[in-house]
Amino acid sequence: MQLADLNALSRDFIPTPTMPVLFIGHGSPMNAIEENEFATGWQKVAAGLPKPNAILCISAHWETNGTWVTAMEQPRTIHDFYGFPKALFDVQYNAPGSPALARLTSETIQTTGVGLDQDWGLDHGAWSVLKHMYPDATIPVLQMSLNKNQPPEWHYSLAQELRLLRNRGVLIIGSGNMVHNLGMMNWRLPDAGFDWADEANNMIKRFIQENNSLLLTQYHQLGREISMAVPTPEHYLPLLYILGLQQKEEAISFFNDKTVFGSISMTSLQIGN
Questions:
Q1: Does Phosphoprotein count among this protein's keywords (predicted)?
Q2: Are strands 21-25 and 268-271 parallel, antiparallel or unpaired?
């Protein structure tokens, strides 16, 4: 698609100052209904952001063949978990969708086809966080899926094609966890991390601060701690999307910087102001 065509397609999203981008460590679905330190951190960050025209979330919990973006008028609230209290299943986050933004997102990406999805909705990687950040649920929300057949470098590069959206008032959020090893969780450590988990988290943070995209995309070569921290890629890949959206000399700030239950990092970051 030519630039003129993209500009016409984005007529519903007039040019704006560059929006910040966020990576959110979302952790347990229970964070959706608990007023804890992480919910407070999300609320505080949202209060300091310009009000978005729309939100595009890349969640760890939507892996697909190919790349898709939700394109329905009213996405459903997906309760993609089990074994939690009924109060959590009762939550509905009734934010509208935006077929216009879905089409703009699809056409902005040139290196791969992006399908328009009518079935998915908003999974807990999106709504458990947005419920605290934007509780009135009036801002349109879309999700973009993770192509499970592509390597980390591909995801990092794809993110760079979404930069136009930052200048259309779209808040892009990656929702996952830097350290996410459910198999090694210890419920007796609700406020602490294992040494290896803290070491991995600090290593990832250091590479982010150094803008070392090479090592961040080749994380599987970084040794035992990172291998334990990222046993599967889906919770890590949303971080690469946010880092791929960073522009030159944009500031990075961390928040909710804590490891819980031994092997889950809630560390989150904001790029830009």
A1: no
A2: antiparallel
Q: Within 10 A of 84 (CB to CB), how many other CB atoms are there?
A: 15
Q: State the residue range of the domain holding 123.
A: 3-271
Domain harbouring 157, CATH code: 3.40.830.10
Taking the CB of residue 227, how many other CB atoms lie within 10 A of it?
15
Residue pair 98/140 in contact by the 8 Å Cβ criterion: yes
This model's pTM is above 0.85: yes
Token readout for 28 is: 């347990």
Number of folded domains that form the chain: 1
| Whether the Cβ atoms of residue 101 and residue 55 lie closer than 8 Å to each other | no
Q: How far apart are CA 40 and CA 97, in angstroms?
A: 26
Q: Mean pLDDT per 10-residue run, the chain (273 residues)? A: 50 86 97 97 98 97 98 98 96 97 96 98 98 98 98 98 96 98 96 98 97 96 96 98 96 98 98 95
The 3 state secondary structure assigned to 67-131 is EEEECCCCCCECCCCCCCCHHHHCCCCCCCCCHHHHHHHHHHCCCCCEEEECCCCECHHHHHHHH
**Are the beta carbons of 109 and 150 closer than 8 angstroms?**
no
Cα-based angle 181, 234, 1 (whole degrees, multiple of 5) = 165
- Tokens linked to 115: 């399908």
Would you call 272 helix, strand, or coil by DSSP? coil
